Amino acid sequence: MPGHRHQNAPIARKEGGMTEGTPALGLTASEFAAIAGTEPSTVAYRDLFIRHDDMPRELRRWADARNVQLRTLSKVKCERGKRSQKVLFGLSDGYAVESVMIQRRDGFTACISSQVGCAFSCRFCASGQAGLKRNLGRHEIVEQVVRLGPKVNRIVFMGIGEPLNNYESVLAAIRIMRDRDGMRFPTTGITISTIGIPKALARLREEHLGINLTVSLHATTQDVRDRLIPGSRKHDLREVVARAISWAERHNRIVTFVYLLLPGLNDGRADAERLARMLVGKPARVNLMRWNPVESVDLGRSADHQLHHFRQRLVRAGVPVVVRDTQGADIDAACGQLWLRDLHGLKAAQRMRTQYGAAA
């Protein structure tokens, strides 16, 4: 019925549980149509995704009359680097997340967040230093992409948070973004990056989304991985690899294993040989990375010759490998550098608006 909320539509809430309204970007096409009723909804639904900050007046009036929120995030701060742009988004409850847009030769990649903070406390990453505050709703995930602009043609869940620890919202957001009646984003351009939660990987294996999968491995022994990713101690390294390979085999795709080289921890000859034995002959490739420095974290970067020897051992074993180029380090937007500058209160967001000016 017109004016009635679809029973599965998401609701945005203020602190204390007060309802603000239905976030439009969390609605599927059918949910949007249920609210729109007999009114022409296809064009309006499409406008939600392609009209970024200049919504048609008719759509704004329609939304106001039905308690529908067209936008829920506020751009608090925008930093531009050589080939990247980092945006701090304020959320309706006073928290904040960061997203990054990275320029490539053939377009732009949106690196988006899935949680406020992270529970896994990776030693090399800034995002988990404050712990996990909450999951993002599907509308908050979708809106990051929409607000980064129409030039985005790839999406990677490599921002703040562990996407498979917010499974339902992340997959709901992906389905909304790939909807032919809405954003029409090709799922072949979407990548989920995860530390590897075995049960979630098993669920993901049964989904048919056409996405890409990247697993942050970073170690070839359980002991070292437990030290680098304390929040993943209960996840057996061998099972993580096996589940990821099973996903790749089921969907006839290649899974990417990211391996961050850290001197004296995981960059030795024995590490390279173990990694090769794990992956040789499997539908897998390796992305080697250097560590991006994080304030207050005492880790080093493996030397160039160590990276070269590690890579060569994988190549000789027949494992596809590339050395991943780092983008965004000049504005603390590279992998592992995103963090929550102030987790609490829109007052903090307002202070930043005063200091830096509202981002357009």
UniProtKB/TrEMBL annotation:
> Region (Disordered): which ranges?
1-20
Family note: Belongs to the radical SAM superfamily. RlmN family.
A single Gene Ontology biological process assigned to it is: rRNA base methylation
Q: Which domain of life is it from?
A: Bacteria
Q: Which PANTHER family match?
A: 23S RRNA METHYLTRANSFERASE, RADICAL SAM CORE DOMAIN-CONTAINING PROTEIN
**Subcellular location, record wording:** Cytoplasm
User: Source species, please?
Assistant: Pleomorphomonas diazotrophica
Q: Which cofactor(s) does the record list?
A: [4Fe-4S] cluster
Cellular component GO terms, alphabetical: cytoplasm
Taking the first listed entry, what is the main subcellular location of this protein, grouped into a coarse class? Answer: cytoplasm
Q: Which UniProt keywords apply?
A: 4Fe-4S, Cytoplasm, Disulfide bond, Iron, Iron-sulfur, Metal-binding, Methyltransferase, S-adenosyl-L-methionine, Transferase
* Pfam families per UniProt: Radical_SAM
Cross-referenced SUPFAM superfamilies? Radical SAM enzymes
Q: Where is the Radical SAM core domain?
A: 104-330
Keyword Lyase set for record: no
Q: Name one GO molecular function term.
A: metal ion binding
| Coiled-coil features, chain-numbered ranges | none
**Protein's UniProt name:** RNA methyltransferase
